[in-house]
Amino acid sequence: MTPKIDPAFKKLIPPLSPEELAQLEANLVAHGCRDPLVTWDGTLIDGHNRFEICTRLGIPFETVAMVFADADAAMDWMDANQLGRRNLSPDQLSWLRGRRHSRTKKAVGAPTGNTNADKNKVSKLDTLKTAEALAKEHGVSATTIRRDGKKFEAMEELAVTHPDLAQEVFEGKKKINEVRRTVRSVKVKAAALLPDAKFRVIYADPPWKYGDKLTEDYGPAKFHYPSMSISELSAMPIKELCEPDAVLFLWVTSPLLFECLPIIAAWGFRYKTSFVWDKIKHNMGHYNSVRHELLLICTRGSCTPDNVKLFDSVQSIERGKHSEKPSEFRAIIETLYEHGKKLELFARQPADNWSVYGNQL
């Protein structure tokens, strides 16, 4: 039977380095797949790398099924199994132990059907017992386990706002403390340059980092201005600059549509709808001629437009210089939102009645 691959299960496993993958493939070619792949309810829970290599090279393999009460129990077994690997970094070990601690605490505090709410809470004694049991299993102190749990919860929050940095920690490429220092540094630098005020309207055209290679006559974004990663943009203290009820107009290109979601969350907003800018002219792209760009509308609190004027969601305006946005969109924003202070992020020139921030001013 061919096992199913569940992305939620697969992402729990710290990836192998290119060298480790190459060695694993060489061993499988030379000796075959000697250890069976492990499944639960038909889903692969151990042996993802071997499965990929064996499937690609036609190497026979066997599977063995394990029985667990639910998906959480299967995932906990996966973490415990991965903790037996020799090639994990100290931060990866801490991440896995912390995830087990967090998961076990939730299981202890899960609703039992008892009407007494106090019995459904995780008591201090339960937490201590959880830490002590995991400490004994992994040969560390209970204090270390509790510290791992706090680190894991912090990294889970970081994974929402800075997914690329969190992934680098999980892959063993960066240390947790190094990532924390990076985030703090970006926040401090941005805070020193941003206006000291509270704004109701934010209009942002970020200098996205693509890592692309396009034709020489056009070129990637980094040839035109210093670009910023998702984590660097997420770390900017925009949330602190906004009124409780505020609106964000955020420019984003099609390739980064889903990658920009952590920025929206980090800045304290929720997506509502969008405008489409039809640039009319041909534009560079890898899969099609991307002649449009998106202006996402996001809000925090209650911030519906001051004027009930419905502009067409598709605006056809011929594009100009690289990344330059038509002034018509700022006019639309000013029409919809007459009141409150306005801030344009990554602006190229001053604008009447707007505070501006950008390296091209």
What does this structure look like?
The chain has 361 residues and is an alpha/beta fold. It folds into two domains: 7-179, no CATH class; 197-357, Rossmann fold (3-Layer(aba) Sandwich), CATH 3.40.50. Helix content is 39%, strand content 16%. It has helices spanning 7-10, 18-31, 48-57, 71-82, 90-108, 124-138, 142-161, 163-170, 176-193, 230-235, 261-266, 327-336, and strands at 37-40, 43-46, 63-66, 199-204, 242-252, 270-278, 292-300, 314-316, 342-345, 355-357. The strands form two sheets. The chain has a seven-stranded mixed sheet with strand order 8-6-7-5-4-9-10. Strands 2-1-3 form a three-stranded mixed sheet. The protein is elongated. Mean pLDDT is 85; it is low at 112-122 and 213-225.
Question: Keywords for this structure?
Answer:
single chain, 361 residues, alpha/beta, Rossmann fold, 2 domains, seven-stranded mixed beta sheet, three-stranded mixed beta sheet, 39% helix, elongated
Tally the structural domains. 2
Roughly what percent helix?
Answer: 25-40%
What's the tally of helices? 12
Structural class: alpha/beta
Largest sheet: 7 strands, mixed
Distance between the termini: 62 Å
